[in-house]
TrEMBL record:
Organism encoding this protein: Amycolatopsis pigmentata
UniProtKB keywords: Oxidoreductase
UniProt KW Lipoprotein keyword: no
Name of the protein: Aldo/keto reductase
Region (Disordered): 320-353
Length: 353
């Protein structure tokens, strides 16, 4: 397998990163089976594993830690994330120094390791000065508990702000960004990818199969419910993910049908086409795959060997133009200035009597 350098870290990683969100209660609750998937991926040359504290409330990290206990830890690039709510405690989340230090210790314990190669903040935290977050992460680097750190699903302007603050205040800086990126979610091509590349950041993209739409398992006459949707806690907007009565999903189905024809003409499966497309972008270091079973993993292992012909890429651009998000909701994060109407409207004056 041809390995790629993770941004400016000098760390070499496989172009496929094994995502473990589906290990545990959210997907595959069989720890031994999940460990077998991890070992198969490692045997195939994948040396990059990504998890998060919030996945199955820490169970995913426990599974990963147990699986890695029997392998040479130094040969694995291990990434995890913090920031998403871990229970009801309002302080057990976000990017504060108080929580970062606690979350890191908790992840180290669950993973059964004394260091994390890449520690990532799961989403922007508008309530915390980014210098607070960078300062805490810098201290963890200097303490040897993490090797480097990154962001996930940050807009371009916040990537730039974090880089500026790090330089101005002598902090270590975000070395990677983990955005959603697929043929159906291409908005980051116009801003996030160029900005991250300009700052020497590695891109580790998530959901290259667009939440299942590019897996080939959904469409007319099919169940149109993923295992992820069955098991994961409900979140706003998730209910209609594959509801074909929704106009945007009808559009997705038309696009996926065309893409399946493009894949077949190129001698590829839809999954291979979708993953290879993401890996073709020069800013992308690795694409996160999230198999729940060995059967899901095996067909994806040969993707790093695939190169798409320019004519195929041109045809994809015709179907979904560069910089297009077919459904903006799939970006998975909106700034509070858009979510909260109070941030866009002056308060009404109180009437006086």
């Amino acid at each position: 397998m041809e390995y790629r350098t993770l941004g400016g870290t000098g760390i070499k990683v496989s172009p496929l990163c094994l995502g473990t969100m589906m290990f545990g209660a959210w997907g595959n609750p069989d720890h031994d089976d999940a460990a077998a998937i991890i070992h198969r991926a490692l045997d195939a040359g994948i040396n990059f594993i990504d998890t998060a504290d919030v996945y199955s409330a820490g169970e995913s990290e426990v599974i990963v830690g147990k699986a890695l206990a029997s392998v040479d830890r130094s040969r694995v690039v291990l990434a995890t994330k913090f920031g998403s709510p871990m229970g009801e405690d309002p302080n057990a989340r976000g990017g504060s120094r108080r929580w970062i230090v606690t979350a890191c210790e908790d992840s180290l314990r669950r993973l059964g390791t004394d260091y994390i190669d890449l520690y990532q903040i799961h989403r922007p935290d508008e309530t915390v000065d980014v210098d607070e977050t960078l300062g805490a992460l810098t201290d963890l680097v200097r303490a040897g508990k993490i090797r480097s750190f990154g962001s996930s699903t940050f807009p371009a302007e916040q990537i730039v702000e974090a880089q500026w603050v790090a330089e101005r205040r002598g902090r270590e800086r975000f070395r990677t960004e983990q955005p959603p990126y697929s043929i159906l979610v291409r908005g980051i091509e116009g801003h996030v990818l160029p900005v991250a590349r300009a700052h020497g950041m590695g891109i580790v993209s998530w959901s290259p199969l667009a939440g299942g739409w590019l897996s080939g398992r959904f469409g007319v006459g099919k169940e149109n419910t993923s295992e992820r949707d069955k098991r994961m806690p409900a979140r706003p907007g998730a209910g209609g993910r594959f509801d074909l009565t929704v106009e945007v999903n009808q559009r997705k189905l038309r696009i996926v049908t065309e893409l399946a024809e493009v894949a077949a003409a190129a001698g590829l499966t839809l999954v291979e086409l979708a993953l290879a497309f993401v890996l073709e972008h020069p800013a992308v270091t690795a694409a996160i795959i999230g198999p729940r079973t060995k059967e899901h993993l095996e067909p994806q292992l040969r993707v790093p060997e695939i190169r798409l012909d320019p004519a195929v890429l041109d045809r994809i651009d015709e179907i979904v133009p560069p910089g297009t998000d077919v459904n903006p909701e799939d970006v998975a994060w909106q700034p509070p200035a858009l979510r909260d109407t109070a941030s866009r409207r002056r308060p009404l004056r109180s009437s006086r009597r």
